Amino acid sequence: MSAPVYVDSPLAISATEVFKENTNLFEDEIKQEIMQGDNPLEFPGLKFTITSDESKALNEDETPSIIISASGMCEVGRIKHHLKHNLWKPNSTILFVGYQAPGTLGYSIVNGAKKVKIFGEEIAVNARIEYIEGYSGHADQEWLMNFIYSFIEKPKQIFLVHGEKESQDVLKEKIETETDIPVLIPEFGETYELGEKVQMTNKIERKVQNTIKSEILGRLEKLKDELKDMESYVKEDMSNQNLTDTDIFRINEKIKDLEKQILNVIEG
User: Fold this and answer.
1) Which of 12, 113, 209, 210 is a plausible cystine mate for 108, CB 3.0–4.6 Å?
2) Using one digit for the tens of pLDDT, what is the confidence trace for 35-55?
3) C-beta of residue 102 within 8 angstroms of C-beta of residue 213
4) Could you give the angle at which helices 208-238 and 79-86 cross, rounded to 10 degrees?
């Protein structure tokens, strides 16, 4: 493969450096492969875009390439800029390699959205969308059951505190049926005492009003991130000496659309 591979994530770049500095801790099989020249952390065509300017330059380069970017659910970070420039292109492929939570931009794209909004601008989803679920960092049901089976002395109680409600209910039934270990799915505000018997000692009733307030604050935080990202790009566009009236109108419409979103949050 001759296409360049860009790692465009400051955190991923830092993590890669940590791995490079600790190759002595690798398994013998991997060490041998590296000695033979097959190094997964260093190969021809691999490049790291450290600065934001280097990241932006990728969107101006028409050379076919692979861009590894974050965040995984496409909510913030450099990935949003790459999606803005490539999601509408039929010859692009967007490959997701992890879980996409409901309500996120990544979830909308994976689940067949024809259009999405990025920085207040409506972008058509014309790219090929692929999803490799196996790269997610969490164990599946089979491996969670294997973990439970591996205990010499079985736990008295299991709490399920992660995952979607439907998946939790299925796993709870499977654990109780196959192992006879009681399972609890605690709710927000519940306190349990772990003694001879596990019992709930307190429960805080969550008011619907507070839930709505939290949702509004969450939406506001998301808009703040979008505003920050949009500010840098608008300033960059406005500094362009070759800007046409059509370009200025387009930028103004994007800002107006974002203003509407902010008003919706305030009035919500």
Assistant:
1) 113
2) 888 888 888 899 999 888 898
3) no
4) 70
